[in-house]
Specification:
With 152 residues, the chain is of the alpha+beta class. The chain has 4 helices and 7 strands. Strand 5 and strand 6 form a beta hairpin. The relative contact order is 0.26.
């Protein structure tokens, strides 16, 4: 392998995150929380990296609190999705294989305006509208699976 071929090889890493579909019933309608990221302006489900020492479930609960401003109770796992993306890490382009463990959670308390700075906006939205608004097809699928579990 020559230097040019070697320079075209990108290091791959695995990344694991956890997230949630948080729901509530309001006036007989099931609503879920979605968030719009401040950096990319994408509508997505609340999710984030698992911190050292955390379980997937604890990370999902923490991310819901940080990104969506609400506290929730864990009901059940929904699905694990995976995808690939490329990003800079310490000045190097790295190819990531990301796994996201999603959980169904029931809203307990809190306000969607109480989110962290990573998020531009968090809002409650009907399930059908969420499937239209979410930017990632894989997350739309997670919401549809959650809707069956909730019995929407």
């Amino acid at each position: 392998m020559n230097d040019r071929e070697r320079s075209n090889i990108m290091r791959s890493m695995e990344q694991i995150s956890a997230g949630s579909v948080v729901y509530r019933r309001r006036d007989g309608v099931v609503e879920i929380v979605i968030v719009r990221t401040a950096s990319e302006g994408r509508w997505q489900l609340p999710k984030g990296l698992i911190d050292e020492g955390e379980t997937n479930e604890i990370a999902a609960l923490r991310e819901v609190r940080e990104e969506a401003g609400v506290d929730a109770e864990l009901i059940a796992p929904i699905d694990t999705i995976d995808y690939w993306f490329v990003a800079d890490r310490d000045g190097e382009r790295v190819r990531y294989h990301k796994f996201v463990h999603f959980y169904l959670m029931r809203y307990v308390s809190g306000d969607v305006t109480d989110h962290d700075d990573e998020i531009a906006e968090a809002r409650w939205i009907g399930v059908d509208d969420a499937v239209t608004e979410l930017d990632f097809k894989s997350e739309r699928g997670v919401v549809l699976k959650a809707a069956v579990m909730i019995d929407v």
